[in-house]
Amino acid sequence: MKFFVSVVMFFVLLKCFTAAQTLIQDSCKTAAAKDPNLKYDLCVQSFEQDPQSKIATSLSGLVLASTNNAASKTINVKGIVETILKSKKYAPGTESALRTCVELYDDANDSLKEALTNIKSGDYRSANVHLSAALDEPGTCEDGFKEKHVKSPVTNENNVLFQKILIPLAFTNMF
Ligand SMILES: *[C@@H]1O[C@H](CO)[C@@H](O)[C@H](O)[C@H]1NC(C)=O
C-alpha cells in the first residue's frame, strides 16, 4: 500500500514537472516567434535553472518568476561593476562609464520592482512599460564605453541581462 502511494505520488509530481516544462517551451516558442531578439534556447534554459519557474502553472507565474530573475541578475551585474571599481583594475578612461553603469543598474532595479508590483496586481500593460524602461539600461551602459572609445569589461554580462529582461517583457505582450 505504501509502495502504491509512493508510485502514485511519483507520477503526480512527474506530471506537474512535465506540465511546467511544456508551458515553458510553448511560451518561449511564442515569444521568440514574436521577437527576433529573444533567443529560444536561452529562454528555456533561464526558466529551467529557476526553481520558481519549475512549479509555474500559468503564463502569469512565468512572468513573475522571470521578472524576479531579471531583478536578481541586475543586482548581480551591479555587484560585478562595483567590484571592478573597488579593485581599481580597469582601463584608463573607463571609471566614469563604470560609475554611470552602477546608476543605470539602480534605475533598472527600480523599474523591475515597479513591474513586480504591477504583475502582482495583474496590470501587465504597466508592467510592460516598466520592463521596457529596464531593458534600455544594459545597452545605455555599453554606449558609455563606446562614446569614450574604450572596451567595456561587462559586455557579456550586459548581453545576458538584456535577455533576462527581454523574457518577461515579451511575455507581457502575450496576454
Ligand atoms: C532595488 O530596489 C529596491 C526597491 O526599489 C531597494 O529596496 C533595493 O535596495 C534595491 N537593490 C539594490 C541592490 O540596489
Give a quick precis of the structure.
It comes from Brassica carinata. The chain has 175 residues and is mainly alpha-helical.
Structure commentary:
This is Pectinesterase inhibitor domain-containing protein. Residues 19-171 form the Pectinesterase inhibitor domain. InterPro entries: Invertase/methylesterase_inhib, Pectinesterase_inhib_dom, Pla_a_1-like. One of its GO terms (cellular component) is extracellular region. One of its GO terms (molecular function) is enzyme inhibitor activity. With 175 residues, the chain is mostly helical. Helices cover 82% and strands 0% of the residues. It contains seven helices and no strands. The protein has helices at residues 2-34, 40-48, 51-54, 59-87, 95-120, 124-147, 155-172. The radius of gyration is 19 Å and the shape is elongated. The mean pLDDT is 93. The structure holds 2-acetamido-2-deoxy-beta-D-glucopyranose. 2-acetamido-2-deoxy-beta-D-glucopyranose binds at residues 75, 78, 106, 109-110, 113.
